[in-house]
Design a protein that fits this description.
About 25% of the residues lie in helices and about 40% in strands. It has about 450 residues and is an alpha+beta fold. It starts with a helix and ends with a strand.
Length: about 450
């Protein structure tokens, strides 16, 4: 993960707290999608039998009618499906389930129980279990290995455009409770080497968007935004705040597009392969080799510090990448603190701060970690993205030692892939407002 990507994730806390403004966008009241057909329902639990809240459930052929599980792990959606149609059940950190729709068709009060099993690769990748071999880490051998992997990457990844249809979920948590999730159904066009500094260009066209909320927290937020908190603003700020709440043009889409663009594997590898000191090799299991690059960065007199580890999990014989993982630890210090403006302070209240705390809050520090994973699929002789996962633990710390924990979990799963005759998206397609629905989770 390049340093500029880390800035993209954490810089909003330092400047305008854009990640908190995203919460505001999640509160916008929008139009709803029509439901139709038979009712399908069930309950999703983990290996211990505990409910999995905010698990994603959708028909494979029409994800736009899908839903998320409630506080009891239950779900219900309506659709016209054939008995052998497939339904996808997924949650970050668990193996995805692809099952027939027929057993879920509602009959009486019975609920089908679906058990999700843990899949650590989808949550975080801590793969370095053996010390690197001194022999393999000699400069000449390492240079030869890196060159061989680079050549295989060039063969495995196509230079032609690819078009993906994805289901992208972004969940936000604080103090262990998920209070909201945004699910976006989108078309994504990737143009290799067309982006900044030789990176891939990622274009996103949103198709459908659903925003799921804890009903109690949504009620609290609506009450706060509609009454005293708004009235305390100056007239100009109040108008600007409400205008954004009502007419925000898909700023949340930025998060989904950026997530798909992270881990630009060929660009990052080629840029880092010249300095052999930061590379090491270990064996995770038979048939797989783990190639690791470690990078440390300190900027602005030490106010910004980041340590990044990139893990390339390779087939030991062909050097084809099987999956890719990154872990970053970030520490940020703001010498004099940043006083947040009125609408930013209100967003802190939505998370877990009381009135007295937010009135005195001045952002002084930021610390956190990011775990990011990419899984691949092979089609037409080349490798393409199959799934992306991200887990971020962040803490923003104020001058009065007020510490706010924020957890962001994101999953993007590819539902279809086109690799032939793919044209770039038009600007009008990428800026068109997306049809939305607000769904409250009880």
């Amino acid at each position: 993960m390049h340093t500029s990507i880390i800035f993209r994730i954490f810089a909003p806390f330092l400047e305008t707290m854009k990640i908190i403004r995203l919460v505001l966008c999640l509160l916008a009241v929008v139009s709803s999608l029509p439901f139709y057909g038979a009712t399908y329902r069930g309950r999703v639990v983990d290996d211990k039998g505990d409910p999995v809240v905010y698990a994603t459930v959708y028909p494979e052929i029409m994800p736009e009618v899908g839903t998320a599980t409630n506080m009891d792990g239950s779900f219900s959606f309506e659709a016209n499906l054939m008995p052998d149609s497939k339904v996808i059940v997924s949650f970050i950190g668990y193996a995805k389930i692809r099952m027939n729709a027929a057993p879920l068709k509602a009959e009486g009060d019975s609920l089908v129980t679906i058990t999700l099993h843990e899949q650590p690769i989808a949550l975080e990748e801590m793969v370095i279990s053996a010390k690197p071999s001194k022999q393999r880490n000699k400069r000449k051998q390492m240079a030869s290995l890196l060159q061989a992997v680079h050549e295989q990457l060039e063969r495995d990844f196509s230079d032609a455009n690819a078009r993906y249809k994805v289901v992208s979920d972004v969940r936000m948590q604080s103090d262990g409770a998920t209070w909201g999730m945004e699910q976006l159904i989108a078309d994504i066009v990737v143009q290799p080497h067309k982006g900044h500094e030789g990176r891939d260009s990622v274009q996103l066209k949103g198709l459908y968007c659903k925003r799921f909320f804890d009903a109690r927290k949504r009620s609290e937020a609506d009450s706060m935004l509609a009454t005293e908190a708004i009235e305390r603003m100056e007239k100009g700020s109040k108008q600007k705040f409400m205008r954004k709440a009502i007419n925000a043009v898909d700023s949340g889409v930025i998060v989904h597009r950026t997530l798909f663009a992270l881990g630009n594997i060929r660009y990052d590898f080629e840029k880092a392969m010249g300095d052999l000191r930061h590379w090491s090799v270990s064996n995770e299991s038979e048939g797989e080799t783990v190639l690791t690059h470690t990078e440390k960065t300190s900027k602005y007199l030490g106010c910004f510090q980041v340590v990044i580890q990139r893990h390339y999990i390779l087939d030991s014989y062909t050097y084809t990448v099987l999956r890719f993982s990154e872990h970053a630890d970030v520490k940020i210090t703001i010498p004099f603190g940043v006083k947040l403006n009125a609408d930013q302070l209100q967003m802190l209240n939505i998370i877990n701060m009381n009135e007295q705390q937010i009135s005195k809050f001045r952002l002084k520090k930021m610390r956190g970690s990011i775990d990011y994973n990419t899984l691949y699929q092979r089609q037409d002789g080349h490798l393409y993205i199959q799934e992306k996962n991200m887990l971020t633990h962040a803490f923003i710390i104020g001058s009065k030692k007020a510490e706010i924990p924020i957890v962001i979990k994101a999953t993007q799963r590819v539902t279809s892939l086109k690799t032939q005759d793919v044209q770039p998206l038009q600007r009008s397609q990428m800026t068109r407002r997306i049809q939305r629905e607000i769904v409250e989770i009880y």
